[in-house]
Every structure is written in C-alpha cells, then in structure tokens.
Amino acid sequence: MLGPTRESNSNEHPAFAGLEEQIPPGRSLWADGLRRLRRQRLAVVCFWIVVLYLGLAGFEFAVELFDWEKPAFVRWNEIVGPSYQKPMESYEWTDEQGRSCIRRAWMGTDFMGRSTLRRTLYGAKTSITVALCASLISLAIGVPLGAAAGYFRGWIDDLIIWLISTLSTIPYLLLLMAFAVVLRDRTFWGIELRGITSVYLAMGLTSWVGICRLIRGEFIKRKESEYVLAAKATGCSNARIIFSHLLPNVFHIIIIDLSLRFVDFIHAEVILSFLGLGETDKPSWGAMIDAARAELARDVWWEMTAATVAIFLLSLSLNLLGDALRDCLDPKLRMD
Amino acid sequence: MTVYIFRRLLYTVPIVVGVLLLTFFLFSVVGGDISPQIAGKNADAQTIAEIRHEYGFDKPLFLSWDSQFVNHFRKALTFQFGRALDREKISEKILRGVGPSLSLTIPMFLGTLVLSLTLALLAAFVRGSWLDMVVVILCVAGMSIPYLSFIIYGQYFFAYKLGWFPILYMPEESLLTSLALPVVIGIIAGLGGNLRFYRTVVLDEMRSDYVRTAFAKGLSTTKVLFKHVLKNALIPIITSVVLSIPYLFLGSLLLERFFGIPGLGSLMIEAIASRDFFIINAMTFIFSLLIVVFTLLTDICYAWADPRIKLE
Fold first, then answer.
1. In whole angstroms, what is the distance from residue A131 CA to residue A203 CA?
2. Rounded Cα distance, A293 and B148, in Å
3. Cα separations in angstroms, A208 against A183, B64, B79, B117
4. Which of A68, B134, B216, B251: CA 20 to 30 A from B24?
5. What distance in Å separates residue B296's CA from the closest CA in chain A?
6. Model pLDDT for residues B161-189, shown as the tens digit of each residue
7. Cα–Cα distances in angstroms (integers) from residue B241 to residues A278, A304, B112, B244, in the given order
C-alpha cells in the first residue's frame, strides 16, 4: 500500500523537482492576517493607541493592586490648585509643605482643585475595566451557548433561540437599565455589587445575544465542512470537535466582534454613569461628563472636553482597528 | 397565507411568555421586596407592612392562585399595571408621555433617514475615491463621540451661547421652536452610524449583476444609481425603517432629559432615579410587545410582497 503512494508523491517526481523552493512557505490564518494588517498604516496607529490605553489602565490597576509608590499622574485625588483653574495658565499655589510656587495645570482643575488630566487618565482604568469585564462575561455566556445551539441543534437550539429572541425583543437600553437598577447595591452570595461591578454585570448579562447568534450561525455553516466530517470519522468526541476543531476556526470572528463591541461598552458606561448607575467615588469618563452638565454654564469646558476626547480617541481607534481586523482576518465578511 | 399568519402568531406566544418570565425573575425574584425602600428611612414597621400588603410583596412567589407569579402575568396581560410609587396610574403616565416622545422622534427619524440615504447614494457615486474615504472616516468619527457630548455641547453652543433656540422645552411655545434644537442634535448624532449602514447597503447592491448590465448597456451613473440601485436597496432599508418604529415610541432618553421634554424617556429616567421597578417593568413589557407586533408585521409584509418566501 505504501509503495505506490510514495512513488506518486509529487516532490520526488522529476517534473516537480526544484518546485519546493519556489513555493513560498505556508502562512497560518493569523500570520497572514497580521501581515495584511501591518500594511495598513492607519490600523497600525490605531493598534498602538489601543495598546497605550490598555497599558495605562493596566498600570493604574497594578499600582492599586500591589500598593506601589504612586507616581504623580496616578494621584488623581491630590489637590493641585484652586478650584476651576483654567488649563495652561500659570497660578501661584502653596503646596503641602507650605512652600509657594508657580504651577501650571495642563488641563485645568475641577471644583475641588484636582487635576483634570490625572482624573481623565484614571478614567481609562474605570472604562476599560468595565468594558473588559463586560466583554468577558458576554463571551463566557454567548460563545458556549452559541456553540451548543449550532452544533447540537434540536431542542437545545430551540431553547437557546427562544432565549435569544426573548432578550432581543426587549429594547436594549431598557433591558440594560432594568438589570443595572435591580443589581445595584445588592448582595449575592456575600458579594456586594457596588459601583462598577453592577455596571459590567448588567452589560455582560444583556449583551451576549449578538456573539451567541454569530457563533451559532458559523457553527451551523461549518458543521458540515470536510474537516469536521474527517474529525468525526476518526472518532473524535463532540467536545473535542467543538473545542479543538471548530472554536479555533471561528476565533477570529470573536476577536472582530469583541473589538467593535468594546466601543459600545465604553459608550454604555457613560450613559449609565450619567443616570447615576455607575461609579460614584472614583473618577470615570461618564461621571466627568455628568459633572460637566452643571459646569458648562459657568464656562468650565475643560473637564467635559478632556473626557470626550479620551473616549473619542479610544473608540475611534477601536472602530478603525475592528474594521481593519475584519478585512484582514475574514475577507468574506468585507463590507466595502 | 392565513395558515402562515396563524403560525407566525403562535411563534410570538413563547416570546411574550419569555419576556414576562424574565421581568418576573428580575423584578420579583432578584429585586425582591422593596417595601422598606418605598416607605423611606424613618418609616415604622406598620407602614412597611401596609406597603408590603398593598404591593403584594407578602404573597407567596409561586404555587398559589394569588401568588406574585400569577399576578405578574395577570397584570401584564390585562394591561393593569397599577400605580407608580408616586400614586399615579402607570398607564396614564405612559399614555401622557407618548405624544411628546413621538413629536421629538418622528422628525428626528425622518430627517436622519432622508439625509443619510441621500449622502449614502452620493458616497456610492464617488466610491473608491478619497472623498468616499473621508466620508467613511467622518462617519466613524461621528460614531466615536459619545451621544451625551453631542447633546451637552449642542445645547451649550446653540442655546446658551448663541441663543438661537430656547434652552429647555416650553409647553406654551410652538413645537417647532422648542423641539428644533433637540431634533437637529439627534439627527447629527445619529448620522454617522446610519450613513455607514446605508452606504454598505447601497454598495452591496452596486455589486449585483443587474447593475453591471445597466452600466454595460450604456446608462449613465446617475440613472443607474437613482433608478436601479435605489429601488432595490429600498428592501433592506424599509425593513430597518419598519423595525425602528417601536423605538420611536420609546422616545430619546438623553435628549428628553436634557431638554426637559416630558416624554417616555423622561419617565424612564424618573423611574430609575426613584428606583420605581413598577414603571420599568410596565415599560419593558409594553415595548417588547410593540416590537413583537412590528416584527410580525414585517414578516407578513415580506411574505405578501416577496414571492420567493415560502409559506409552508
């Protein structure tokens, strides 16, 4: 049996001699996607902006977690100047040691004299924590449910479809607020849901429908493909087919969806904070915009602007990066 | 056809039941007994007990004809939502809010639709050029600015600084003057996302065979775009239009809040501020029902209009 197979092996046939050097080495989906992504300069810039934001949030998080000595830009609570100091203007200020000095707040101060710049930087931590936790929760619910529905079909599919259509029948904002209101300031199994915990729980528990639907559709499509049939023929268990054959093949869809969903979470955090359902004692972009409502009438525009620019930059980068990722990783999904 | 409509109607039953189950679980099981909170901080035990009795929190959750579970279904299906925390009937509150909400959202919706559709066709006209690229980037940029910032800056500049519009909604003034600014802000804020969506729809249509044929037989670009593409692109557009009608009733939460428009969005915000679960519950059910009905209508219209949809 082995003899003829070896003889017909193309590499050893004289006609194909030397061809091996001409064929470029194969690339995986990810390597290929990355190569294409690197060619889009705008997407690369966006990628680094997102990394910068994530790094900042991670650093702020680490400083609090490990109790490091805080560098100046992390001390958002420090009073650095008079109330509502205008940005870029020098002012005289007596610091804690009683020395008077000339200072300048780059982005002004809030009503308590705290630096707007530091508060905006800290807001990155709040927003990104919320968006990250909400994404993780919605993935943890949406992906297994979508996979089970698409793979097993039958009554499991019916049940999950029923769940999906029920949830998507309720207007999203109403659903989100209902969850946020009910979960706020409650204790479940000894864990008190305070501040942002209830925010990301509400977002995560309500937003898994989209990814679930996507994964289900992909699984239905790919279930009949050759590689799944081959895996089945060799006797792979269902769990193995799902986890090591199908999921890696739809992983890029999860990444694309996540990068675009992240933006929605950041915007939703702003709205919930404004409604008084968000973080209360630490700075967040939503809380800053909420505070600015009253301040704008007194011509205090910098706090509002700082938060808006911070959100704008992050969501613009994520949006553009998400679109570029979609084009690079899944050419079939290309929009334009 | 009748069989199809009937079957489609039957499909909606589990969804309505699902919504009711979800709201029951959320507000009665997780939310639980909120009578101490309704009574306030300094209430004595007797007041709390009275309130508990009035709102039915003293009844068993399940397994009784008079349980909270059965009452939840009964209330919703007969539209008897009872009274809000401020003793006013919830149904009256909701009916009163529909008018102001619609007078804000309908012009906003139509304005966004016309403007973004026209711009989308124009963008398709110059597709692939740098102008098209600029439009796309502007759309994404518009989508990246928080909705609240649009509202706050708009109100600050046009109403407060320039004084072109009244700052708040005034019932005694004409609708035109008091609603103009929120409508304009709503249109601008929604333009980015909508334009991007319609541009995709139009460009999808541009790739079809009949467009190539039309170009091949020598028709001008204008003619192809406005006579052929627009007509065919209208199908997904009409679907999205019909499906967004229920959301028009819902009003605009943030715009209504900032301009003091007494619509359903304001009602919702009041309900959240006072943690009035009863209003949120009623609104959730009513709007889910509206969406179910409009989805049903869309499907039936499709089946009626498009012969390719099978009716078995």
1. 9
2. 10
3. 17, 34, 30, 30
4. B251
5. 12
6. 787 877 777 777 777 777 888 888 999 98
7. 32, 34, 11, 5
Q: Could you tell me the two tokens for B274?
A: 């006072």
CB A218 within 8 A of CB A253: yes
Of A68, A90, A70, A69, which is closest to residue A81 (Cα–Cα)?
Answer: A90
Give dist(CA B184, CA B252) in Å, integer: 13
Q: A289 and B277 in contact by Cβ < 8 A?
A: no
Average pLDDT, chain B: 83
Alpha-carbon distance A323 to A318, whole Å? 8
Q: Is the CB of A334 inside 8 Å of chain B's CB atoms? A: no
What is the longest distance spanned by two Cα atoms in chain A? 92
* Nearest residue to A328 via CA among A26, A25, A31: A31
Q: Which of A174, A267, A315 sits opposite B284 (nearest CB)?
A: A174
Q: In angstroms, what separates the C-alpha of A184 from chain B's closest C-alpha?
A: 10
Tokens of B56: 């039915």
Test B291 with A275 for CB contact under 8 angstroms: no
pLDDT of A7: 45
Mean pLDDT, rounded, for B19-27: 86
User: Which residue in A has a C-alpha nearest to residue B270's C-alpha?
Assistant: A275
Tens-place pLDDT, residues A201-231 = 889 999 999 999 999 998 998 888 899 999 9
- How many angstroms separate the CA atoms of A18 and B210, rounded? 47
CB A220 within 8 A of CB A157: no
Q: Give bridge partners of residue A188 from the DSSP assignment.
A: A191
Range with the lowest mean pLDDT among A88-92, A148-152, B71-75, B198-202?
A88-92
Instruction: Closest CB to B283: pick one of A174, A320, A323.
Output: A174
Residues in chain A with CB shorter than 8 Å from the CB of B15 are: 162, 165-166, 169
Interface probe, candidates A120, A169, A302, chain B, greatest B C-beta count within 10 A: A169
Rounded Cα gap, residues B294 and B242, in angstroms: 7
* φ, ψ of residue B88 in degrees (nearest 5): -90, 150
Contact A104, A90 (CB under 8 A): yes
Which parts of chain A fold into alpha helices (H)? Answer: 2-7, 19-22, 29-39, 41-66, 116-152, 154-169, 172-183, 196-206, 208-223, 226-233, 238-240, 247-274, 285-295, 302-329
What is the C-alpha separation between A243 and A248, in angstroms, rounded?
A: 7
Q: What is the pTM of this model?
A: 0.83
Q: Is B30 within 8 Å of A336 when comparing Cβ atoms?
A: no
- CB–CB of A181 and B277 under 8 A? yes
| Partners of residue A181 in chain B, C-beta under 8 Å | 272, 275, 277, 280
Nearest to A267 among B136, B146, B250 (CB): B146
Residue B1: count other Cβ atoms within 10 Å of its Cβ. 9
